[in-house]
Amino acid sequence: MHERSLVKNLLHQVQQIAAAEGNGAVEEICVQAGTLSGIEPFLFQTAFEDMASPILGAPCRLILEVVPLTALCNDCDHQFEVIDFKFRCPVCQADSVHVVEGDEVKLMSITVNSEEPLDGVTS
Predict the structure, then answer these.
(1) Tens digits of per-residue pLDDT, 13-40?
(2) Helix/strand/coil for 23
(3) What are residue 77's phi and psi, to 5 degrees?
(4) In terms of Cα–Cα distance, which of 35, 56, 55, 39 is closest to 102?
(5) What whole-number distance in Å separates Cα of residue 87 and Cα of residue 80?
(6) Quick check: helix, strand or coil at residue 63?
(7) How is residue 123 annotated by DSSP?
(8) pLDDT tens, position by position, 79-99
(9) Class level of CATH domain 2-117
(10) What residue spans define the domains of the chain?
C-alpha cells in the first residue's frame, strides 16, 4: 500500500519542520491531494490514523483536501476540470492540453500547540 509510505514520509517531514521551528506537539496537518495523484483518500486517512501518534508522539488530526484534476488548453487557453480522464478542451475540442492542478500531493500547513499554522510548506 503506497499510502502508508507517503504518510510515513509526510509525518517525518512534519516532525522535522516542527522541531526546526522549536514548537510543541503537532495538532493538525492539512494536505492537498489531487485526483490524479494516485492517493486513495480512505486508505491515506487510515494509514495516517495508524501512524501519526507513534511517529509524532501525540494525537494529530489530518485534513485531507481532494483537489480536482484541472487542465489548460494549449490552443485556446481555456482552463477546465478534467472529467472521466477526458483530456479534451470542451471549448475548442483540442486534445493539446496540459495538467495545471490535481496531480500532486502537497503539505499545506501544520498546526502546533499555539494554533498557529506554518503556511506554504509543500512536499
Answers:
(1) 998 888 887 767 888 999 999 999 989 9
(2) coil
(3) 65, 20
(4) 35
(5) 10
(6) strand
(7) -
(8) 999 999 999 999 999 999 999
(9) alpha beta
(10) 2-117
